[in-house]
Amino acid sequence: MADPFVWDEALLRRYDTSGPRYTSYPTVFSFRDDFGETDYQAALARSNVDGRPLSLYVHIPFCRNACFYCACNKIATKATRVAEPYLSRLDREMVLIKPHLDTRRDVAQLHWGGGTPSFLSLDQMSDLIDRLDARFGLSNARDRDYAIEIDPREADVLTLRHLQALGFNRLSLGVQDLDPRVQRAVNRVQPRILTEALLDEADRLGFRSLNLDLIYGLPLQTRDSFAATLEQIIAMAPARISVYNYAHVPERFAAQRNIPREDLPGPEEKLAILRTTIAMLTTAGYVHIGMDHFARATDSLALAQREGILQRNFQGYSSHAQCDLIGLGVSAISCIDDVYAQNPTRLEDYETALDAGRLPTARGIRLTFDDRLRRHVIERLMCDMALDLAALSETFDIDAPRYLADALACLEAPERDGLLTREGQRLVATPLGRLLVRHLAMAFDKYLPRHPDARYSRIV
User: Fold this and answer.
1) What is the spatial distance between Cα 230 and Cα 251, in angstroms, rounded to a whole number?
2) pLDDT above 60 for 400
3) Is position 176 annotated in a ligand binding site?
4) 69 is in an annotated binding site
5) Phi first, then psi: what are they for 183, rounded to 5°?
6) In this structure, are residues 340 and 31 in contact, taking their beta carbons and an 8 Å threshold?
7) Is 40 labelled a binding residue?
């Protein structure tokens, strides 16, 4: 097994600052509290004119056990019945949205996240799908992308058969690490056989683009222990593998206070884990899509990247064309037309708004021309690992090198350090630069200096 490119550890450490993951631009730290229900309704009306396909995201905040590393908006409980009032309020939110939205548009994407969506009983899953179909009209098209995040401890083969009958065709399974010592340290004991059994059944049922989530930087991990996990994951042959960087922020997430800082791998070991990961997955035939995503060369993500049509949204990378995203549930974010709108992050505030007959829009932002241009720049850089300034000039009717002169000046040092190259008006991230693409994207973020106290995860 050889490294796919020459590593410069000193350079990586120098650029390993904290920064946004750019699932949106502007990021949530720039959303405004004076953005409310009427602003969201106006955005829905504008989106009807353009008629883009719809993407629905449903946040299910419940899970039975709190994993110590988790930074999601979640509620740990073992009582499935607590989901009933939440499902009723989700339906109320749909009812309030529907009069403002042309629901004849195709629902090309559906994603259930959490929490743990597989916390719901099979009947509750059916009920939620029925409500979504009644309000928005779900698709039966073969190219639809209907995905759900699964906790293998909360599902079995009957669950997968039920999900297939409901119309889901893509699964993402949370694994994190297969080392029993690491699993105990993060309060997520999950024998390998659970994951293998679900993968085998999902493959037999015809689910496509199966994804496994891993996390590096967890307590007690070493380069050798994680290599053992990767060896087992590669043998399972999922189409996609996500390897996320653990961000230890115990002051923000109470569950992380159960992880002693001294148990975490140090910076050198963590970098070695990342190096091992990229080398092993590349050798096994996976394409490094960008940041923490890997996919088989024949997978739709890799194909979309080669064709220059890869997209990025709150769920990560997507192979589908741009959709208008409707976020449903506590903390969910919508991206409609030129607007981001976020629901309350506290369940009580979400419930109060809906019980009062109001859309639960807590904050958001309407993008300016400059915001839309920079969003496009950052998305293309993070999806294509390159930026075509000539194409940008044509798309936005500007002189891109002049308009973005300050940002391009910020990239001169990374260019000298070998993180990107210039080919005429085309900027291309090098293999090392792909690892640090978040840093390259930060050069175009005009809001970043306004939020010096914002807590972002480290880049690598």
Assistant:
1) 31
2) yes
3) yes
4) yes
5) -60, -45
6) yes
7) no
Gap between the Cα atoms of 410 and 429, Å rounded = 15
Please tell me the predicted confidence (pLDDT) of residue 34: 96
User: 71 a known binding residue?
Assistant: yes
DSSP state of 225: H
The pLDDT score that the predictor gives to residue 455 is: 74
CB 199 within 8 A of CB 173: yes
pLDDT band of 66, cuts 50, 70, 90: confident
Q: Is 188 among the annotated ligand-binding positions? A: yes
Q: Is 240 annotated for ligand binding?
A: no
Side chain identity at residue 429, one-letter code: A
Q: Is 161 annotated as a binding residue?
A: no
Domain ranges of the chain: 1-26+368-460, 28-326
Structure tokens at 281: 């997955």
Give the CATH number of domain 1-26+368-460; options: 1.10.10.920, 3.60.140.10, 3.40.50.300, 3.30.200.20. 1.10.10.920
Residue 336, H or E segment: strand 333-336
Q: Is 323 annotated as a binding residue?
A: no
- Rounded alpha-carbon distances, angstroms, from residue 90 to 31, 49, 57, 313: 23, 26, 11, 22
β-partners of residue 212 are: 173, 241
149 is in an annotated binding site: yes
User: How would CATH label the architecture of 28-326?
Assistant: Alpha-Beta Horseshoe (3.80)
The reply to whether 348 sits in an annotated binding site is: no
How far apart (Å, rounded) are the C-alpha atoms in residues 262 and 221? Answer: 12
pLDDT of residue 6: 74
Closest CA to 115 of 58, 160, 166, 170: 58
Whether 146 has a binding-site annotation, put simply, is: no
Q: What is the pLDDT of residue 319?
A: 80
